[in-house]
Amino acid sequence: MKAVAFNASARKGGNTSIMLKAVLAPLEAAGIETELIEIGPKPLSGCIACYKCFERKDGKCAVKDDMNEYIAKMVEADAIILGSPTYFADVTSNMKSLIDRSGMVTRAGGNLLSRKIGAGVAVARRAGSIHVFNSINHFFFINGMVVPGSSYWNVGFGREPGDIDNDAEALSTMKTLGENIAWLLEKTVG
């Protein structure tokens, strides 16, 4: 069993990373392989609607950058956790690129993410995180993925790196989310 988390924050090791690590900790404790991938600091281009993925049906995007590596990680994983800070009440541009391009490629390849577990994590300074959470969940739903809940919405509050450590409720929610993903993986994959 494997879970992969994608951090779309430009701040490597910042609040979104802290939240994702809090989700991954219970998975690791349960013996599940985990990986955290930082996609935020390096720009990713958006989908160019070339539809080559539908022509080829090979699970790859025609645009040459790191996206095919990320798509392969998603396809091989049993659980996918997407984390994004809130940029003007939505996901970062890199998260949007990941959602759009991986969504097109995996749907073109025969719904390669169907029935995998998907969980979204959003961080905000003050507001807009629910829209980020919804944007990520819409990606999971259109791909036929299973979305577990937690003890509260998967959101946290903090602006400066490390501020999230003061949001005890968010970190507790992440721990419960990780426990729920681990339980679900045991029931469905294990």
Key descriptive features of the protein:
alpha/beta, 190 residues, 5-stranded parallel beta sheet, 6 helices, globular
**What's the pLDDT, averaged over the residues?**
96
Poorly predicted runs of 5 or more residues: none
The count of DSSP E runs of length 2 or more, i.e. the number of strands, is 5
What order do the helices and strands follow?
A: EHEHHEHEHEH
Which overall shape is indicated by the principal axes computed on the Cα atoms? globular
Helix content: 40-55%
> How does the major sheet shape up?
5 strands, parallel
Strand order of the largest sheet: 2-1-3-4-5
The gyration radius over C-alpha positions equals: 15 Å
- What's the number of helices? 6
Question: Beta-strand level of the residues, as a percent range?
Answer: 15-25%
- The helix-and-strand class reads alpha/beta
Distance between the termini: 7 Å
